[in-house]
Write a structure and sequence with these properties.
Layout: H1 5-8, E1 15-20, H2 27-38, E2 41-44, H3 45-50, H4 58-67, H5 82-91, H6 93-119, H7 124-127, E3 131-135, H8 141-146, E4 149-154, H9 157-168, H10 172-181, H11 185-191, E5 194-197, H12 202-216
Parallel strand pairs: 1-3, 1-4, 2-3, 4-5
Length: about 220
């Protein structure tokens, strides 16, 4: 896959691995293994987006007029009430589109800036061993151009349902509803260059991941 040289031209080399998959597939397990066992730097786009939602952040200052001040916590901190935010976003498609138009470019600006910073570090022994994993819910646009490889984390639907029930306390009906709202396996596979089945034990996943990384390094 193209390494996105137009975006990151003139900086040190790195292995940039995208990680995608549906809710309950176990992406966090894969990311934890990448960080702990293979020393990847992790960039979770959801976490980056959440980092904008603080009172003095310039992105939040653009978003607040869209949501309205009733989105703020009642404790006077100026911080958003995420449950109220989610409610408004769920009910208002126009609002979602306006928020996405502000947040998504800012997230990818932050991702690209972080990658450039890592690649341009002066420590020579680090520069030849930079490994970055980017996790995102939507494998499109700038994500595709940044990644050398994109790993789709597949897990059998029943196992995903069981995980959601166990880790998030959902009813079976709620978990099934969430899975129905997700993109299909075919949609993810169209974007991916690699796939790992995370339906088994952690040991099986570790072995599969090790084999995959040997192929792409």
């Amino acid at each position: 896959m193209d390494k996105g040289k137009n975006i990151l031209e003139g900086v040190g080399e790195a292995l940039i691995l995208g990680v995608i998959g549906g809710v309950g597939a176990g992406k966090s397990t894969i990311l934890d293994l990448l960080e702990r066992e293979y020393h990847f730097t992790l960039l979770r786009t959801d976490d980056i987006a959440k980092s904008f939602y603080v009172p003095e952040n310039k992105i939040w200052k653009k978003l607040l007029p869209l949501f309205g001040k009733d989105i703020l916590k009642e404790d006077g901190s100026g911080e958003p009430d995420f449950h109220e935010m989610a409610r408004k976003l769920y009910q208002n498609r126009s609002l979602r589109e306006k928020v996405d138009a502000i947040v998504h470019p800012a997230v990818w600006d932050k991702v690209e800036h972080t990658i450039k910073t890592l690649q341009s570090e002066e420590t020579s022994d680090r520069q030849n061993d930079i490994q970055i994993a980017i996790e995102t819910a939507l494998p499109e646009g700038r994500f595709l151009s940044l990644c050398d490889e994109i790993l789709y984390v597949f897990t059998e639907p029943e196992i995903r349902i069981e995980r959601l029930m166990e880790t998030r306390g959902y009813t079976r009906e709620r978990a099934q509803e969430i899975l129905r709202s997700q993109h299909t396996d075919a949609w993810f596979r169209q974007a991916a260059t690699l796939e790992i089945d995370n339906s088994g034990t952690i040991k099986e996943t570790e072995e599969k991941l090790s084999t995959l990384l040997e192929r792409i390094k």
